[in-house]
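thread: overnight batch results

M.L. [08:02]
morning all. the overnight job finished for the chain we discussed friday. pasting input first so we're all looking at the same thing
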Amino acid sequence: MLIGLWHINCFSLNIEFWMSSLRLNSLAKMNLATFLVGLFIFGTAYDVSLAAKLDPTGWILQRAGESTHVDPPTKLHVVSIASQIASQIAPTNSIAQTVIASQSEWQVLFDNNPSTFITLTNLVSSGDTSGILIDMGQTNAVDRIFINGTNNGLRIWPNSGSATNLPLGLIVAYVGNNPQALTNVSNFVIPYDAGNPINESIDMRFSPVLGRYVRLELQTQVAWGVQYWPGHGASIHAASVDTFLNVGKLEIYGSTNTAMNINAVVLETNAPLPLSLAASDLSYYIGELTGAACPIIAPAQANGYSGNLYWVNDLAYLAQNYTQMTNNIASGILPTNEVNVVLTNGNVVLFSSWPYRCVLWSVWEFLERQGVRWVYPDAHGDYVPARNGVNLSMLPLQYNSPVQDINASWYITDFMPWPSYDSQPVRQEYLYFLRNRWKNSWGAIYGLGGLEIPAAPATGIMLNSNYTEGFSGFPENFNTVMPDRILSIHTNWWGWPGPTSAPTNEYETAFNMCTTDLISWVADKVIACDASSPLKDMNVLNNNHRNLGYNLLPMDATLFSSDSNSLAANALYDQPYGNTEAYADRYPGYSWAGAYYKLVAGVAQIATNQTIGGLAYADLEQAPVVVYPSNVVMTVCLYGAPNLPMNSPANAGTKLNFMTWHTNCSRLATYDYALLFTDYYQTNLMLPVPMVSATVDRARFLAGIGALSGECQGTDPSIQYNPWDFYAYPRIRWNTNYASSNLLTEFFNGYYKEAAAPMLAYYQAMENFQYSNNVTMHYVAYEYWANPGTFPRFVLFQMQTNLQYAESIATNWDVKNRLNDVQNSFKWLTSSALNINDLTTLTNFSNFTTVPADGSTVTLGLTNFVNCVPARTNICFYNAGLIAGAWNLNGTSRIQQTLNFTNAGDYRVDVIGGVSYFNGGYSNLRVYLGGSAGTTNFDFTYANVNLTNSFVLNVPMPTAFELVLEDDSFNQFFQVSQVRVTSQ
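M.L. [08:03]
and the structure it wrote out:
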């Protein structure tokens, strides 16, 4: 809701001038409040403290030669000034030829403009051992050093997934009061493929250290297998070429308060990585919140501190073996709360839970209750409120989320610049996912622990060799459940008669799921595997829903058996139906949930003491009419329109199906696609998809029916263009009490900072219109698209206006970079997706045909239609069909014309045309207007092109909307010879 218009002195805008100067035509006649929704909203002011970033005014930067510091070896010196770029720098073999930047030229590191930079280099042949020495002019408590490259470096770090290629080198940081004897505080590994010049974000955080001087070095001669990279057993790695490092921004964080004996984080020496991460976050953010250093200390030092002690407790001594662990859990001695923070002795804040991931979640929950947020996977992606101290009144803090699993169905390790199993510090970019409560991921999650959980003792029961493959594999494992070698023996279990080649379950034909002997064999396998390695023992602390049962999961694109038993099962349990809700099915219009139900239910009815897992998707997604046994856990794919609430008509089928599943299956999980922004048809990452409020609504609906646990596929590079969705998704599952307004406010405050208010309005212009008018962005398969009506011109104008204002008030370099991403997204949306190249038409509708509301009919000029080409469509041709002056829609294609509507309401659209060429398949004419759509199915009579097809569609408000005609077919040509529009 609009609370206030933004006022700028230089514009002196008032309502009358605003409306008249924009020549809004029919737009001016709409309700003013409706039009202004999405403009800059007061009440979301940027409130974040940058006090921890030390003021560089007066700092002196200089070369630090060999006489200043020689251990460890370094290869760093300045070779360029701000006006030079790396490609123009010729490597030099002489130190005397080096360009030494003056103090004024060093200021490019602090000018808030990443396009200005200096370039540092390792000159291998010269043997130079210089570095950068920063004199801050006074002693500070330093706890973070940030280096950023040029604009090209302002991006998510690429994944360097190699276990054998050695890194390029180290960025080494030192702090102290004596430039000849500084303390090494942090090392940052440069991956082998970081490029030359190295042009990345480098964020080094460490326990506070007192010092006036900071020294930075680029080292390339490192004994990787000895000191810095335990994952590699390599000898000294010397650089073979001169290495450049671009430095566009330099920031040093800490406090001018040099008292080091107030607050502290207590951590045992040589603590495991998860607990070290917990301590590091407490140290840094408590320092930010209080303005005083909060060092990490050993327990023996605790008596020397007068303030609060934040104690990270290691409970491994209570779980030295499986029996001890389970006994201590049963007795309550070993707490397993996901969040467990208590206050003891008046000043000791104790973070104590099991396993280690719960200690981390306890720390992050505690910091969040202080106002800290992590909104984006980069070094400047955190939000810290103004320094108001730390609030302990919330303690004790004990919390368990309503969801067992929040699984990122992509590799979050892509945000690490090396393989996850190498023993290196976890980067801030990667920690974004863990801090926001993704509990699992494709591949192992590095940093949350797990190895501290002792394994269950072996039962001693040998597994039958017939069952060797077990039940591994998610989300498809039929080829493990029923391996080919077993099918080759039991040919009567094969799903198709007379196979000409060896049977296979790989992606195609499944075994006959209704065969009684086969069901018994699978059940026996479940019982045998459970006797050998019981899941209840193996998964006593498991937080991954996919590992809770013995899974029976069809392969992708499975073809189901068509024998009489399968057909009978399907008829008994689930009649064929018109599946308009699922995104993909192998047999369009039919469900095979009945045959699949018989397999899952049959196994569960025999293996009654074991949990049986299933996956309902595509042809199996429709809920069966018979109740599942209570030992079945079914993961149901979550289709529908993710940008709309569950009560939207677009989600009616999805909601009904899930309610039926809830009735017929007591244990549910979900497999979602909401964060899958690109796929086969939609390949561009820049499409904005506003669905935070819908995500909140879905999560609450799923929590209400016990189906919140699960996972979501995602296109992680899309975080750059849809950061709000990636932020909201796991958080609302962790805590369903969140309101979407809270999620949006904290995200936009943390991400866009001083430009938060207009950028929130930018976002809400999209979401409010789509959410309120049931306008879906679902296109085909799993893709989103800028469908007709999703981004009408008045919404685009609101977006453009707010973005321009945001750009005018942005001051921080990271905010400017993020707004540049939005600008690129907006340009792509208007030009490439919506074919709007003249942005003056966002408010000037004079060239569009006006449709009055007096009941008169407007016949549209066919020459005013243009091709509207989303990713999967073909080009249409005008005046190329059987009838002169007609449009020929060439199979799965669209044409559109923009119309100016003087009133909201229903309008009848008459389309005269039909199938001009038929070559099998099917043919639909779909008409879109104002966010609504209608469809007509055609018979296949050749050259039947004189049919009148009428659609009554709704225009939600008086403004310009596209009328779109789509031939939704593959083998036919559809001809359009006349189009008429009449208000109703």
